[in-house]
Amino acid sequence: MRPFWLLPILLAMAGSPVRADDIKQTGLFRRVKASIDAVPAIDTHDHLRAFDALPNRVETPQGVGMTLHSIFAGSYYRWTNPLSPWPANGEFEEWWRTAQHDFDNARATSFYRYLLPGFSDLYGVDFDTITPEQAQQLNQSIFENYRDDRWLKDVITNRANIELMFIDPYWQRLKFSREYKFAVPLLNVTTLMRGSHPDRFDAPLDSPFVFARDRGLSTESFAGFLQVVDRIFSEAVAANCVCLKSTQAYQRTLRYANISRTRAEDVYGKPPEETTDQEQQDFEDFMFWHVCKLSAKYDLPFQVHTGQARVQGSNPILLADVIEANPETKFILFHGGYPWVGETGVIAMRHKNVWIDSVWLPTLSYTMAKRAYQEWLEAVPSDRIMWGADTVNAEGIYSATEFTRRCLAEALAEKVERGELREEHANRIGRQIMRDNALKLFPGLRRMLWRETP
Ligand SMILES: [Zn+2]
Q1: pLDDT (tens digit per residue) in 10-43
Q2: Which class would CATH give 163-446?
Q3: CB atoms < 10 A from the CB of 298, how many?
Q4: Which residues of the chain does CATH 3.20.20.140 include?
Q5: pLDDT over 60 at 121, yes or no
Q6: Which residues share a beta bridge with 167?
Q7: What pLDDT, on a 0 to 100 scale, did the predictor assign at position 18?
Q8: CA distances from 104 to 4, 82, 100, 210, 335 (A)
Q9: What's the rounded Cα separation, in Å, for the pair 253 and 315?
Q10: Which of 180, 347, 411, 451 could lock 373 by a disulfide, CB 3.0 to 4.6 Å apart?
Q11: Ligand 1 centroid vs 7 CA: distance in angstroms?
Q12: Which residues have a Cβ under 8 Å from the Cβ of 148 and sit 6 or more positions away?
């Protein structure tokens, strides 16, 4: 027999149109979300190029421009889902005839869903139920918006409410340019660390050897090469770069052994075809440790891609030894180490020189991101967590930002509802993650702020 007190609850649940346990339906969630929305954000990682160099523009009957296809092509959606190619005649209708079916298996994926706020909030379209007429109109609106750079700037600074954005220029690593007033430059060291020989570089803007030649510096000896690397760091600092970034996790293991300088010197100068994989790995291992030392010397915190990449070698735990041996270096574990978010948390818990960046995590998996925020806040002080959008155009940046604010608000509101956190403290944490923690870790940002903020 059921206890008598259960009956009213069962009756109340029957036929209820909304889930009683969905925090997003509550006033509490709306208040926390509004508080997070009001924070002028500091986005610690994006890949936004100069307006004229934005990627994925296509040929259309009205000329070259941005289209609905461009938005998906420049998104993470394409990493796991099909995208019909833009047709040779540039006609939207022809593209949509096949493209409308591309999304069938993507509906629940975060790589698809993170883009939805851009369509709903910026264009008033529910993409899940979009009609051919709406799709045509959406495509045309996108094309019109990109006739000049005003839309891009307005969406980023006003709609997404981003005050500063770190731009990781992997297309021109050693050219420290600043294309927007909200842009924060940084030094991407990914390719620098593989510099055992000039042939290791395809792009001149990546090559320390081209950098050296342009300045009349010698790379004849390994000592000379290391002086060039030092020069790159000092020029980066002079150009207001605030941190370092590595995405080597896409190419190799994050297990960096402590290799002697003599061993690295032996490999230096050997052409790639005469170098074994182990020799090159040893060289890169040495360079990673060397870059960690320069990171401390120049006070440039080190953003390291961890997790989702070459997953057999991207577990952040692999960095634990190098982190422990370099206490003066400030390490920032990117992407929360997805899917190893707990591992990321314990590294930050054990080491005061580690920060967690949740950049890209909600886009990878909204549910895991929400769980990660809650777990990290239980294991790590709240001033050690940051965020970033990690995308390439206005719609992507708005969407990833809104997706993150929503996810963070949900994580915090659930804690408040469970009595694990006071609402005013949740609001303070939201502001820390969206802005204040970056300002504290990168003091150089203060002189780049351009808004009147309370
Ligand atoms: Zn990125």
Answers
A1: 444 444 456 668 999 999 999 999 999 999 999 9
A2: alpha beta
A3: 16
A4: 163-446
A5: yes
A6: 46, 185
A7: 60
A8: 46, 10, 8, 47, 27
A9: 9
A10: 411
A11: 52
A12: 51
Cis bond before residue 61 (omega within 30° of 0): no
Give the distance (Å) from ligand 1 centre to CA of residue 4.
56
The CA distance from 238 to 232, in Å, is 10
Beta partners for residue 244, in sequence order:
187, 302
27 CA from centroid of ligand 1 (Å): 34
- How close is the Cα of 95 to the center of ligand 1, in Å? 28
pLDDT tens, 251-310? Answer: 999 999 999 999 999 999 999 999 999 999 999 999 999 999 999 999 999 999 999 999
Contacts of 307 (CB under 8 A, 6+ apart): 249, 314, 315, 316, 334, 335, 336, 337, 338, 339, 340, 344
Residues above pLDDT 70, as percent of the chain:
95
Å from CA of 429 to ligand 1 middle? 24
Ligand 1 center to 261 CA (angstroms): 31
Do residues 186 and 243 lie in contact, with contact meaning Cβ atoms separated by under 8 Å?
Answer: yes
The rounded Å distance from CA 265 to ligand 1 centre is: 31
